[in-house]
């Protein structure tokens, strides 16, 4: 049975960074809907270009499109040992579709982590975040001008302050209900994402291991 994790949290919470780190350290597949969409945009896919326009306005991409993208990706062989989802699900409809997919594949229960950060800190972080024009990696702070790969660091279109506040508003109305959908599950955990990244990582690892152990105990009964 695989170790399957959903990393939740508002824009700027650091969930992408933690998802990538955890996936690398545990040998799991990290699936980011943002990365999948950006790749399709580079290929000039018309639907992906329409999705980009919606994201640039701070909106969310259509549920049906995202569900199809994730379902196809989870169906590949490299997802069988387990995965870490970053940026999905963002709506209750997406969460229900994921439950149906997991039920069909008879996979392990989902461990859901909410990376919680106060709104004021999120606005500060997103205002200073830069992304590499070359590899797409995120970088914090305005002092740096280039990425480790040599690419130029630029501000993401959707990190403009007015767009940031719109994204947080959408998170509150559309994505936060997903947390309520998962909250009563025994595999749901909340980590304080306002702490230093290494402290967040330590607590997150402990929470996931604890949830996985609890699941193993339930299956052994």
Protein model, in words:
It is a single chain. The chain is an alpha/beta fold and 221 residues long. It is 52% helix and 15% strand. The strands form two sheets. It has a five-stranded parallel beta sheet with strand order 2-3-1-4-8, sandwiched between helices. Strands 6-5-7 form a three-stranded antiparallel beta sheet, with no helix packed on it. α2 crosses α3, α4 packs parallel to α5 and α6 packs across α7.
In short:
The protein has 221 residues and is of the alpha/beta class. It has helices spanning 15-26, 33-42, 46-56, 63-74, 92-105, 119-128, 161-182, 197-220, and strands at residues 3-8, 29-32, 82-86, 110-116, 130-132, 138-139, 153-154, 188-192. β5 (130-132) and β6 (138-139) form a beta hairpin.
> What is the string of helix and strand elements?
EHEHHHEHEHEEEHEH
Tell me the number of helical segments per DSSP (H or I, 4 or more residues long): 8
Structural class: alpha/beta
Mean pLDDT: 83
Q: Give the N-terminus to C-terminus distance in angstroms.
A: 16 Å
Low-confidence stretches: none
Main pleated sheet: 5 strands, parallel
Helix content: 40-55%
CATH topology title: Rossmann fold
The tally of beta strands, per DSSP, is 8
Molecular shape: globular
Q: Architecture, CATH level 2? A: 3-Layer(aba) Sandwich
Q: In CATH's first tier, which class applies?
A: Alpha Beta
């Amino acid at each position: 049975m695989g170790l399957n994790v959903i990393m939740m949290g508002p824009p700027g919470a650091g969930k992408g960074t933690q998802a990538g780190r955890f996936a690398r350290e545990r040998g799991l597949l990290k699936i980011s809907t943002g990365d999948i969409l950006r790749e399709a945009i580079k290929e000039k896919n018309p639907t992906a270009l329409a999705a980009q326009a919606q994201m640039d306005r701070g909106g969310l991409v259509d549920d049906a499109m995202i569900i199809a993208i994730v379902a196809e990706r989870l169906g590949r062989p490299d997802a069988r040992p387990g995965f870490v989802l970053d940026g999905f699900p963002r709506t209750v409809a997406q969460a229900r579709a994921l439950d149906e997919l997991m039920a069909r594949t008879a996979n392990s229960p989902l461990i859901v982590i909410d990376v919680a950060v106060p709104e004021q800190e999120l606005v500060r972080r997103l205002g200073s975040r830069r992304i590499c024009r070359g590899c797409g990696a995120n970088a914090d702070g305005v002092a740096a001008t280039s990425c480790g790969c040599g690419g130029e660091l630029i501000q993401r279109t959707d990190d403009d302050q007015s767009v940031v506040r719109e994204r947080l508003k959408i998170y509150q109305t559309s994505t936060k209900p997903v947390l309520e959908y998962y909250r009563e599950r025994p595999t749901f955990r909340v980590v304080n994402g306002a702490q230093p990244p290494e402290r967040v990582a330590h607590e997150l690892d402990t929470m996931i291991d604890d949830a996985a152990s609890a699941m193993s105990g339930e299956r052994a009964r």
